[in-house]
């Protein structure tokens, strides 16, 4: 069986089980690396229509530019859309979900990059990694390793532990297709046929809802329906001196931001009718982190027959308005501490925001939605922020509503994209995540 057939079988199984697939291209020949990556995406595009994804690279390296140029030439008219981004932009991609990601790791292997891009591909999608053979990799310093060198230590003292561990984890994965591009040979075939078929829960919209039914009909999962139902509580202003907090927690790709955007559209619709206007604020570390939320906010308002005005900063939507009655603005976290007059505030990826800022937002506004990922890169080291905030609200005898995780709707994430060890990239990311802690405290082991 050829490698394209193996890839097709791996992707079909991933689509059936809602798992991501992993293809690893090993070699030093730039043209062959680009060709195999382009051929892999061509095969993927025959199974997933109108796919959109990322190509990540280090622009300061001429060989990286050469590989990317050859890839662009070979991908040609393949019916997919690709966003070519340097690794320095990975923090802007948090909260983004794509169908595929090509990661050129020939020049660098930085734990933060691996962490930020872990989970960015949706279930049924594919990761394509380009890496050198291990014997070549350990002979060169990556960009990340060069930043770790300190006086009295030279390149000969670097022990390449991270590269060896990364290589061993990739080689040891049952569900990874590994190709030696220099020899045009399959280095390791994936084990196919042992994944369970994923069956989503049937969607049931409640008979009685306070949000308009067209908003509910845009939900893609039952968990999203339940989250919408819970967020209907935000329509009621809390009594003076009390606060209403919605805490929405799930892994990446479960539709947190999308469903909050739809909820804001429904809230704006209802509050406009009740009081004549609605003023909301959305905050996150970067405007691109709320792009999905803004997209579904606009979609929800249009479904409710509103003419929407949009203000952008670069490619990011930072303000959505309907006449003089509905205002939804992106505001940076620290600037939220001086904001006033907002009916509802949304804190997206709350685990990434410093705890004093979360406390400040909590004290300043009576209705706040906190959405966050507590697994993977976004939540690493910040889980205590949400736990502390939850404890804080309880000790202050404030009403705290938690959807999809706490015990109103059960201690579970929104719809599961099963990301256990049978999901290759997630497994690798989880097993390598401790390197982020090591490299923050020590520079000699990498």
Low-pLDDT segments, ≥5 res: 392-422, 431-445
Radius of gyration: 23 Å
Please tell me the CATH architecture of the largest domain by its name: 3-Layer(aba) Sandwich
Task: Classify the fold: give the CATH topology of the largest domain.
Answer: Rossmann fold
SSE-based structural type: alpha/beta
Q: What's the tally of helices?
A: 16
What's the end-to-end separation, in Å?
A: 39 Å
Kindly state the percentage of residues in helix. Answer: 25-40%
Query: Major β-sheet, in short?
Result: 8 strands, mixed
Name the average pLDDT: 83
Total count of strands: 15
Proportion of strand residues: 15-25%
Number of spatially distinct domains: 2
Protein model, in words:
- There is one protein chain.
- By secondary structure, the chain is an alpha/beta fold.
- It has 2 domains: 3-193 and 420-441, Rossmann fold; 213-403, Rossmann fold (3-Layer(aba) Sandwich), CATH 3.40.50.
- It has helices spanning 3-17, 30-45, 62-75, 111-117, 134-137, 143-148, 161-171, 213-216, 222-231, 256-275, 291-303, 355-364, 376-379, 383-395, 424-432, 434-441, and strands spanning 21-26, 51-57, 80-86, 98-104, 121-131, 176-180, 185-188, 244-249, 278-283, 309-313, 316-322, 326-330, 344-347, 367-372, 399-403.
- The strands form 2 sheets. It has an 8-stranded mixed β-sheet with strand order 10-11-12-9-13-14-8-15, sandwiched between helices. A 7-stranded mixed β-sheet has the order 3-2-4-5-1-6-7.
- The model is unreliable at 392-422 and 431-445 (pLDDT under 50).
